[in-house]
Amino acid sequence: MSLARFETLVGEALDSIPPELGRLIDNLAVVVEDLGEDRDLLGLYEGIPLTEREDYGGLALPDRITVYRQPICALCDSEAEVIEQILVTVVHEVGHHFGIDDEQLIGFGWG
């Protein structure tokens, strides 16, 4: 799958987040890269979760979600599966932005 198509699908996954949650997202950048240091990683959240932002400050760099294209595409057999995996990955990483840990996300079905 092309990088442009993959980026479009990541944008669509972000757009599918309910507006009441989307309004709560703060100072967050979402990017697509081909591979991370761990070549099996599908996505990565880096930053300070909203639940821990007491002294965050207004000039802080944005938190970052990276969605990794090659591992997701390698895991999936069809575009429909890629779309579903992108959604799961984006929701999972946004969950970390809200301070939800891996165990809870997996319990919610976003693992």
Task: Kindly describe this structure.
With 111 residues, this protein is α+β, with helices and mostly antiparallel strands. The protein has helices at residues 3-15, 19-22, 69-75, 79-97, 102-107, and strands at residues 28-33, 43-46, 63-68. A 3-stranded mixed beta sheet has the order 1-3-2. The mean pLDDT is 91.
Work out the helix count.
5
Q: What Rg do the Cα atoms give?
A: 14 Å
- The proportion of strand residues reads 5-15%
Q: How many β-strand stretches?
A: 3
Tell me the major beta sheet.
3 strands, mixed
Secondary structure: helix percent: 40-55%
Instruction: Report, as a whole number of angstroms, the end-to-end distance.
Output: 23 Å
Strand order of the largest sheet: 1-3-2
Uncertain stretches of 5 or more adjacent residues: none
Order of helices and strands: HHEEEHHH
Shape: globular
Please give the oligomerization state of what you see.
single chain
Class computed from helices, strands and strand pairing: alpha+beta
Mean pLDDT: 91
